[in-house]
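Handout, section B. The chain below has 336 residues.
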Amino acid sequence: MILEESQIIARLRFIPDLKLLYVNNPKVACSTIKKALWIGAAPETFVEGMSPHNKVASPYLPSLEDLYVKRTQVVAATKFTVVRNPFARILSAYLDKVGRTDRDTNVFHPFARRFGISGEERLTFTQFLELIATEEPSYLDDHFAPQYVTTMYDFCPLDFIGRMEELEEVWAFLGKRQIAISEHRPHATNAAGLLATHYGPREIDIVTTYFDRDFELFGYSKDPGILAPVRPVTLPSVKPQVLTSLLGGYCDRNPGRRQRLLEGVARNVPDFNIDYSRAESRLVSLRELGDFSKAVTLKEITDWKLISIYSQEMLRRGMFNHAFSSVARLKQILYG
């Protein structure tokens, strides 16, 4: 499992004055929640019609460095997220980002490039599911990825996990903290009402297999006819230092300390891809980059995401021959 710096900052929404850390989960009332938190913290800065996703104008801390500096407050804050029945969430993501004519190019174009799809091509829901099911879950855009990935379940010691089918509990949770709710649903798709026309045996099999961990952790049935939760959620048993170590692994100014912090994360989260984070955090030596390039050339390494980040680091270090060789291999892996 990889965690990119851009993914972490997109997911962690922290407002120190509220003492709340919201882990953003797309297609799960996230627009409404972010708007409510913004108005609750700084109502004078929110103008009706503004996008609640605007991190620059909002009171959310804008960078990982800010989060790391305030890590003591981050750990002390109440940490929460909201999840949704996997059948409904992935259908909503398809309808909003892939199936419509006026698609969000920020989401669809990278998806199309990754899977070799024409920008004009229309995918059925089944074709869409068959494509994403071939991908490592943490490599997908957050609209399509499993929710244990998007909610940083293995990295963040969440105190409360609400469910979209029980939003009254989420509103009560926020109400106790003087956060009023004003619905903001610009991307609503009525996915729950369209399940019957999109799910047959093939679609059910793909979703229950690929999103298996979501069904188990968040208490949902694998029967698409039962949208409401059937079991309590399972809160993560994550040590707070895992989250602060993750932030420090990207932001601490001391390279040696960054390395030790990332190693600490890897000890606590066995699936964590420390090689990717070391490359993004610029901790990989020239020798390691050279050895990596040789392994790619020999086809001993075929992970496209890892090759991509190492190639970027090779270019940054001026290792042009190694980088171009790796990029050529990357294109073979992705496009044949």
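Note. The longest strand covers residues 78-83. Compare this with the example in section A.
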